Amino acid sequence: MQQIYTYGNYLKSKFSCKIYKVGINISGFTCPNIDGTVAKGGCTFCENDSFSASTGEIQELKGFHLNLDSKTNPNLQLQLEQLEIQFDAISKRQTNEYGAEKFLVYFQSFTNTYAPFDTLKALYDKALSLPNVVGLSIGTRSDSITDETLDYLAFLNQDKEIWIEFGIQSVYDETLDKINRGHNSANVKEWILKSKERGLHVCGHLIFGLPDETKEMMLETSKQAYSWGIDSVKYHPLYVVKRTALANDFTKGLFTPISEEDYLDVLVESIQMKPDNISVQRVTAGIDDDSLLSPTWCRNKNTQIKNINKALKPLGLKY
């Protein structure tokens, strides 16, 4: 059996040691479709409170939010402290439990370029100064980044491993409207191409099972995302959690989640058409607590991976 080219394969080949991503949640970051800049309420599937604080310091900043037009940031020092506290705790656990040797700081929650440049520069520089950090991975939206920030990331990329993660989700604007995304597909393509022009590493997030999308539409999203030159991909099924607009639609019978059989079908075909140089960072997602409404197959990740490998086996592949 041939293993799919994973992000772990890529990192091990490049650094010859165990590299782990340290997920960081910095208070003060939000999204333009949560704060009302482009929309309100966030994406229909997003439970905003799911990005909950993990330290007491973060709780103290509740209600404090930055955006691209913020003129000052009185809490920058506290944000830098949050970064260091979280990195220290998580990296030590990853070292003790998994033998991690080097780290990528993963700015994960909300939109991590949606702040004044001086704030971003301070956070990125601090992250790269932490012990055994070889680079950054920055989760963001294509409507929430500037050329100035991209230029600085390109500068850092000369000596460090710099990744930027964009939520592509779908290339169909009618779908993006239905999920209250707040931008169109052309905007995503524009900023992915700009990132690639600067030599940055790009990971694209794709969601299968979005409202009213057919298998053909999902596969077309994969095809176009690959053609934009992304370096890595994360595949997600759309699942429904409580306290979301999508949950309201689900409860009213207006939305039916994708079945596991259909998800496996489109996932396997998407992997088959994927260029060999694009690494895979994730093949599924879910949550195992009482906030999950549907589908129940998204509850157990181990079972999901087992079934994915079963679907890949006839192709001589494994994840």
Structure description:
By secondary structure, the chain is an alpha/beta fold. The protein has one domain (2-318): Alpha-Beta Barrel (TIM Barrel), CATH 3.20.20.70. The protein is built from eleven helices and eleven strands. Strands 2-3-4-5-6-7-9 form a seven-stranded parallel sheet, sandwiched between helices. Strands 1-11 form a two-stranded parallel sheet. The radius of gyration is 19 Å and the shape is globular. 39% of the residues are buried. The model is unreliable at 50-59 (pLDDT under 50).
Key attributes of the depicted protein:
319 residues; two-stranded parallel ribbon; TIM Barrel; 11 strands; globular; alpha/beta; seven-stranded parallel beta sheet
Question: How large is the radius of gyration?
Answer: 19 Å
Helix content: 25-40%
Distance between the termini: 10 Å
Domain unit count: 1
What is the overall silhouette? globular
How many helix segments? 11
Instruction: Provide the CATH architecture.
Output: Alpha-Beta Barrel
Mean pLDDT over all positions: 94
Main sheet: strand order: 2-3-4-5-6-7-9
Strand content: 15-25%
- Uncertain parts: 50-59
CATH topology: TIM Barrel
Strand elements, count: 11
Profile the largest sheet. 7 strands, parallel
CATH level-1 class: Alpha Beta
Class by helix and strand content? alpha/beta
CATH superfamily: Aldolase class I
Question: What string, H for helix and E for strand, traces the elements in order?
Answer: EHEHHEHEHEHHEHEEHHEEHE
